[in-house]
C-alpha cells in the first residue's frame, strides 16, 4: 500500500525538454515508461509544467543574446534559454506517453520577470508557488522526485524541499540532465549538501 505521507513529484516531462524540442535534454523521453510505472507506488502524484509567457525574461531572444549565456537579473545570475515551454503550445504539453492522471499539476515560470526552476519558489527564492502548503495540508512529508532536468528544475526543487524540512529522494535513473559547464556535478554536490538522498 502506498504510504499516505509520501508523494511523487514528476518534473517538467514536456515536449520541449524531449528530443526534437526547443530545449531538448538528451534521452529526456527515455524516462517516461519508468516514471509511469513508478506512479503506481504513490498515493499522491504531482506533475510540474514549465509554463512561460511569450517573451519571458529567461529567453535569450528577449535580451538579444545567445542561448546558454547568462545575464544579471535583480535576483541574481540567470541562464538565458532558447524560447521554450510557451503557454498553450505543443512544446509546453506533456510528453504524449506520460500519464497525467496525477492529483495536481503545478505550473511555474509564468511571471514574466522571474524564472522558476523550483516547484516551491521562483528564482528569487522568496516568491512561493503554494506547493509547500498543498503538501503540508495533506500531511505529506516525504517526496520522491523524477524528471527533467536533473541539474536545473529537479535540483532546485529537491534543495528547496529539503530546506523546507521534507525528506527528499531523487531517483537519478529517472532524471536526465542538461549538463552545461559542469552544472550536473555542481547539482549533485548541492543536493547531497542539502541532505537530499540521491540515488
Ligand atoms: C528547465 C531550464 C529552463 C528545467 C526549465 O525544467 O530544468 N530548465 N526551464
Ligand atoms: Zn523554463
From TrEMBL:
Q: Which UniProt keywords apply?
A: Hydrolase, Metal-binding, Pyridine nucleotide biosynthesis
**Which biological pathway?**
Cofactor biosynthesis; nicotinate biosynthesis; nicotinate from nicotinamide: step 1/1
Enzyme nomenclature, EC number = 3.5.1.19
A single Pfam family, by name? Isochorismatase
For molecular function, the Gene Ontology terms on record are: metal ion binding; nicotinamidase activity
Q: Which GO terms describe its biological process?
A: pyridine nucleotide biosynthetic process
Q: Which residues form the Isochorismatase-like domain?
A: 7-198
Is NAD set as a keyword in this record? no
Q: What class of enzyme is it?
A: hydrolase
Mind telling me which PANTHER family this protein's record contains?
A: LD05707P, PYRAZINAMIDASE/NICOTINAMIDASE
Looking up NCBIfam families in the UniProt record yields: PRK11609.1 (NF008623)
Q: Which family does it belong to?
A: Belongs to the isochorismatase family.
- What is this protein identified as? Nicotinamidase
Amino acid at each position: 500500500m502506498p504510504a499516505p505521507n509520501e508523494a511523487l513529484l514528476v518534473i517538467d516531462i514536456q515536449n520541449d525538454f524531449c528530443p526534437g524540442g526547443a530545449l531538448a535534454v538528451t534521452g529526456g523521453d527515455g524516462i517516461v515508461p519508468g516514471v509511469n510505472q513508478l506512479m503506481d507506488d504513490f498515493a499522491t502524484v504531482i506533475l510540474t509544467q514549465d509554463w512561460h509567457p511569450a517573451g519571458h525574461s529567461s529567453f535569450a531572444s528577449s535580451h538579444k543574446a545567445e542561448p546558454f549565456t547568462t545575464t544579471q537579473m535583480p535576483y541574481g545570475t540567470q541562464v538565458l534559454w532558447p524560447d521554450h515551454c510557451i503557454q498553450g503550445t505543443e512544446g509546453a504539453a506533456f510528453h504524449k506517453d506520460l500519464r497525467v492522471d496525477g492529483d495536481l499539476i503545478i505550473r511555474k515560470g509564468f511571471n514574466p520577470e522571474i524564472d522558476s526552476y523550483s516547484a516551491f519558489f521562483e528564482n528569487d527564492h522568496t516568491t512561493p508557488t503554494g506547493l509547500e502548503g498543498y503538501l503540508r495540508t495533506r500531511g505529506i512529508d516525504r517526496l520522491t522526485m523524477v524528471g527533467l532536468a536533473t541539474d536545473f528544475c529537479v535540483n532546485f526543487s529537491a534543495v528547496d524541499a529539503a530546506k523546507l524540512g521534507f525528506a527528499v529522494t531523487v531517483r537519478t535513473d529517472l532524471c536526465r540532465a542538461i549538463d552545461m559547464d559542469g552544472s550536473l556535478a555542481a547539482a549533485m554536490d548541492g543536493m547531497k549538501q542539502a541532505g537530499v538522498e540521491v540515488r
